[in-house]
Every structure is written in structure tokens, then in C-alpha cells.
Amino acid sequence: MSDPVSDARMFDAALAVLAQRGYAGATTRKIAEAAGVNEATLFRRFGDKRQLILAAIHADLGQLPKVALTSSGDLEADLIRVVEYYTNVYQHRDGLVGTLLLEGARDPDVAALIKEPLASLSRLGKVLAGYQKSGHLVPEPTDFAVQGLLAPLLMISVLRRVTTSEIAYPDAQTVVQRFLGGRLTAA
Amino acid sequence: MSDPVSDARMFDAALAVLAQRGYAGATTRKIAEAAGVNEATLFRRFGDKRQLILAAIHADLGQLPKVALTSSGDLEADLIRVVEYYTNVYQHRDGLVGTLLLEGARDPDVAALIKEPLASLSRLGKVLAGYQKSGHLVPEPTDFAVQGLLAPLLMISVLRRVTTSEIAYPDAQTVVQRFLGGRLTAA
DNA sequence: GACGCATGCAAGCAAGTGCTTGCATGCGTG
DNA sequence: CACGCATGCAAGCACTTGCTTGCATGCGTC
Question: Which ranges of chain A would DSSP assign to H, the alpha helix?
Fold first, then answer.
């Protein structure tokens, strides 16, 4: 009966259920059902729930294109690329980022998995610092700059899920404009 | 044996465990233990787990001082008051806000409980709109303005818990300065 | 065609969890 | 003192959940 099941199908299901119901709520039975797979198959393949979920997260995060965190010299273009990237991250699995951030605070393994994506934040900081040094951006602590650029996106992604009214992600252009307002040097 | 137990003690315990482990992880046994109370007492008093937790959240959120969301005419002073308030909210029970936002996305009752605090955001929007109209602030969609002011705090509160390095909340003065940079009219 | 292998299926087990209950105990109030 | 009342305690029940296992089945490979 039935073809061999792809890992991807189970990962998809696992992440969908995880994002929607959290780690504890993501029961192996629900994941199996969502994947259209027998529960036993999950265990035979991944050993236990934790490894399944960790593998799913790992595969998913690894699939994210590496951020184009380069200084091309064109400040605005660089920022737009970054904002588009993060908007994508928030959208690509609805609510997953929030869940991972929360769950990461409780589970060291999850924390380890999201470590690299988080590290990209400080890489972004360095890019911004470069533009500060070159005089394109007003100087400020790089943490502040990073927050100024990305925090609104995070806030939107969180609020979207708890409020009834539909909140849309603004386009990258707009986000960057807001960020640059007051930060451009009077060059 | 033992004096009557105050609701507050159970609420404290419930919220502490809730913030740390989420709704599913906040078992009645753990809450009882944290409160130094017998599990049966929880049920006798509150009926079931859900009502206990909802009552705890309600009592706690109700205890938050009403935001001083008034336009005094002194823009900077108003903003500082607001930022201090929200910094407080994030700090006052470590991680609770994040948990509630996440849990609120899954549980309509929790969503209902945090509705009022969330509504204060749109009230803040109106205050800011007032300052835009009076020419103190550059015009922009009020949602953007609210996010510009508070999103960094939210991001910090989230990142604090997943990163090993200690991230401190900036003081209100700093937050407001960052917000005002680029938003003050050239009056 | 025979074999191996991944899967489905169904039953089930052990642990955890929400919740109940009967009983004893101690405190305050009349 | 007597009574009521809130609590502690311990046992336990029903259900969920992670995980296992034995068996049948179908697919690809040799």
C-alpha cells in the first residue's frame, strides 16, 4: 500500500500544525493526519516527536534563501532587499516565526535552531554600520537601526494573528522609506 | 490546617507558570505547587483550569494602570509616558505578553481578554494623529506611527528571551528620541 | 516469481493531566 | 464549646498522548 512518503510532506504538515497550535498542541496524531500518513510512519522515520519537529524546522529554515546581506553601495536597494526577505520569512509559514521565537524561549533545542537566523540580524547590523560610517546613514547604535527597520514587521506579524481586522504587510518600499526618514544624512 | 488562600497567590503562580511554559504546559499540578496550595483547592475555587487562568489574566491586566493616553500638548512628555507604560507592561511579568499574544491567536477567550490592552494601541494612534494635525509630527498613517514608537519594544521583549546575551530595555527618553528623529516638523 | 522494504492498520501500553471525591484537620464565629 | 468552612491529603478515574508492536499489503529489484 502507498508509495514511500517524502520527508517534505511530513515536514510541511509538522510545521503547519506547529505554527497553528504550538509544540505541545502539535500532537503526532494531528501531524500524521495532516500529512495523510500513518502515525507509526512518523516514529519509524524520525524516532520521536522532537526529532521530527526539529528536522522539519531545520529543513525549512535551511531552505530560506541566504539573505542578500551585502553592501552594494546602493543603500535603498540593499534595504529593500532585506525588508523583502524578512517580510517573506514572516509570511512564508503563517505564524511560524512567532511560535518559534516563543517556543525557543522554552526549548533549548529550538533556540539552537533559530540561532542562525537570529545571527543574521547582527550581520544586518554590520551592513547598516557600514552605511553609517560611509556617511549615508545617521549614526546610532546598530541595534537601534536594526530594530527601526525590522521591528514594525515583527509587530505586524504578531498583531495580524490576534486581531480580527486584517492587517496587511506594507510593501518593502514603504517600510524602507519610513526607516530612512530622519536617518538620511543631509548629503 | 492552613489559612484561607488568597486568590492573588494562585493568580501569581498561574501567570508565572503560564508565562514560562505556555497554556498547555501550565499544568494544574505545577500551578498548585508554585502557589504552595493543594491542587484540589484550585478546582474548588475556580471550577476548571481555563477559568483559573482567565481570571488570573483578567486580574493582572486589570491591575495595569490605565494608560495616560492624553494629549497634554507637550508631545515629548506624552510619548515618554506612553513608552514608560509599555516598557512596564513588557517587563512586569517576564514573557507574559509574548505568551498571551501567541496564545491569543489560538484561544478566543484569551484573545478577548487582551482585546482591551490592544485597543489602547488605536487610542495611541489617535493621540499621535492629533499631534500630526497640529503640525508637531510629520503626517503618516497612524498605524505606522504607533509601530514606529512601540515595535522596537516588542522586538526587544521577544529577543530578550531567545538570545543568551542580555538585552536591556532602553530608557523611554531614548526610545522617544529615536521615534521623533525624522518625524518632527521643522517648526 | 521471490525477496526486501516502506507503509498502513489496529491494538495497546505507560505516563501525564484535568478533575473529582471522601475524609481529616484546623481556624474563626456564634 | 459547637458549628461551618476552607483547606490538605490521597486515591483514583477518564482521557489524551507519545510511542511500540505484530501483521498484512503493495511496490520495486534481482
Answer: 7-25, 28-35, 39-46, 49-63, 75-92, 96-104, 108-113, 115-133, 142-162, 172-180
Contacts of A98 in chain B (CB under 8 A): 101-102, 105
Asked if A103 contacts A22 with a C-beta cutoff of 8 angstroms, the reply is yes
List of residues 6+ apart from A91 with CB closer than 8 A: A169
**What is the 3-state composition of chain B as percent helix, strand, coil, each rounded to the nearest 5?**
70, 0, 30
Closest CA to B98 of A144, A121, A100: A100
What the block records as the C-alpha cell of B24 is: 498547555
Q: How many residues does chain A have?
A: 187
Does the beta carbon of A158 lie under 8 angstroms from any beta carbon of chain B?
yes
pLDDT in tens, A80-138: 999 999 999 899 888 899 999 989 998 888 898 898 889 889 999 999 999 999 999 99
Residues B24 and B18: beta-carbon distance below 8 Å? no
- Give the amino acid at A183: R
By CB atoms closer than 10 A (0-12, 13-18, 19+), residue B101 is: buried
A111: cell is 533556540
Question: Which of A137, A125, A148 lies closest to A184, judged by CA?
Answer: A137
Whether residue A151 contacts residue A159, with contact meaning beta carbons closer than 8 Å, is answered with no
A19 close to A102: Cβ distance less than 8 angstroms = no
Chain A partners of B156 at a C-beta cutoff of 8 Å?
147
* Res. B95 pLDDT band, cuts 50 70 90: confident
Query: How close A105 comes to chain B (CA, Å)?
Result: 5
pTM score, whole prediction: 0.91
Residues B111-129 have pLDDT tens digits of: 988 988 888 899 999 999 9
Residue type, A51: Q
Angle at A142 between CA A138 and CA A147, to 5 degrees: 100
